[in-house]
Amino acid sequence: MGRLLFFALLAVLAFWALRGYWRAQERRRAQDRANTPAPAGEDMVRCAHCGVHLPESEGIRSEEGCFCSDEHRRLHARR
Ligand SMILES: [Zn+2]
Fold first, then answer.
1. Distance from the CA of 41 to the center of ligand 1, in angstroms?
2. Residue 8 sits in the same domain as residue 32
3. For the chain, what is the domain count?
4. Domain that holds residue 69
5. pTM above 0.70, yes or no
6. In a shared domain, residues 4 and 27
7. Is residue 68 domain-shared with residue 52, that is, in the same domain?
8. Cα-to-centroid distance, 48 and ligand 1 (Å)
9. Which of 44, 46, 54, 48 is nearest to 76 (CA)?
10. Distance separating alpha carbons of residues 43 and 53, to the nearest angstrom
């Protein structure tokens, strides 16, 4: 009888520990979602001409840096 009680207690403790772990995981995932801006964690770059911030995939890269448009890349190169 004592052994049965011990195992029952152990099962309850294990259940509590797992439930706490699951809740912590759930909270961490919810926080990750909240912290990540809409297209999944894409790097932001700054236009070297006008200073506007834009996703890296929308920027134009050149030797002088990143630009928001081809026009700004040309205007910056002309200076
Ligand atoms: Zn610009």
1. 22
2. yes
3. 2
4. 44-78
5. no
6. yes
7. yes
8. 7
9. 48
10. 10
Torsion (CA) 45, 43, 57, 34 in degrees, nearest 10? -120
CA 74 to ligand 1 center in whole angstroms: 10
From the CA of 55, how far away is ligand 1's center (Å)? 13
Do 11 and 27 sit in the same domain of this protein? Answer: yes
Q: How far is the CA of 40 from the centre of ligand 1 (A)?
A: 23
Distance 68 CA to ligand 1 centre (A): 4
Q: Output DSSP code: residue 11.
A: H
**26 and 56 together in one domain:** no
| Digit-coded pLDDT (tens) for 21-69 | 999 999 998 888 777 655 567 789 999 999 999 999 999 999 889 999 9
